[in-house]
User: Fold this.
Amino acid sequence: MIMSFAVTAETASPSDTHSCMLDEGARGSSSLLQKGVGRIESEPTQEHSASGTPVQRRVSDSSHGPTALSENMDRAAMASARTSSFKKWRAMSKRDKVQAVPRTQKLHQKSEPGQNRSSVIEEKVIAVAPARKRRHKGGSTQKSRVREPSTMPWTAGAREFKASAESLKPTTDKVSSHSYQTMYGMFLAPLSTAQYQPRLFEIGLGCDMDYGPGAGARMWRNFLPRAVVWIADIDAACVEQIRAKTELKNVNYIIGDQSNKQTLQKWIEVSGGNFDVIVDDGGHSNFQIKTSFDALWPEVKPGGLYFLEDLHVGEKYDDTNGTMVMSDVLQAWTEQLLIPTDLKTGVQRPRDATNIEKWPLPDGVAFVLCQRQACVVGKSDPTDNSWLA
Assistant:
């Protein structure tokens, strides 16, 4: 922010000692100049002509002559301009809400012959402001800085998972409608190059999706080529249709209702249980999710993972009248992880136990990590008890 103004005071002449050039900033002092530094004449004096006749004329007092008057006007104009320019700078600084630092420079031009050296003065007031800020819709301001994307390992895993899913058509809604590449890329990317055969069980074949069933199954085969994949769904006709497709021959399918405890036990018997990864992308009702978790959690290997998708649906389509919303259940488990029972005394620390008593933390839960619309529950590794400390 730079403001510049000039003050020009021409040397007053005897014929017009009131003429004075001032800029806008110095106009307020014009009355002062006229009153205090105006034309001052001496008292009339008499001289005699050669014939002896008295001749009366006015002469200027030497102390108030044209040169002294011009210098006085220059000094007054300079002071007035300096004061006015500082006021203008201060007003603009307050308006722009910046803490500017004033700096005054006086540049004297070479005077012309016969011209007072200080009669031409250019005065600049320079305001040094901080970096320009960008105003956002909410009214807040922030500096315009470009941040490079992070190269953290989990971000690389998320990009890898999303790229793998998007390479297939149709693309699963895990990455098209949701951002589940966050949790899957973070935890499962290392399994894509594993030398052993991880076991994965998913509830939900996608038979009710508008782009057709099987997108998730194709994605798992592509992302985890060495994995043993099991897919369960309640729609028998849909399952048989997918089984007929050649590209999904190396996926195991099972039929049944995930809210039925007997069906869940049958699934365990047929598949053999003992899974590294379980994914619940089934009916999404609270009762279905909780019933399936209670039956299948023991079948997760130590160090294994249980993924819960589309948890936002449970609040909208609640089938428990608010008595068992999975979001509340997971929050109760998280609180018990954050404020655990003292392992030495067995005494719980004081807290609200309403939901905690209703939904105690399942055995072996090491962590509950959530992202938008989904969570993952991790099982502890019994060979490492550091997480209990």
In short: Residues 61 and 87 are 37 Å apart (CA to CA). The first strand starts at residue 2 and ends at 8. The chain has two domains: 2-37+60-130, 153-388.
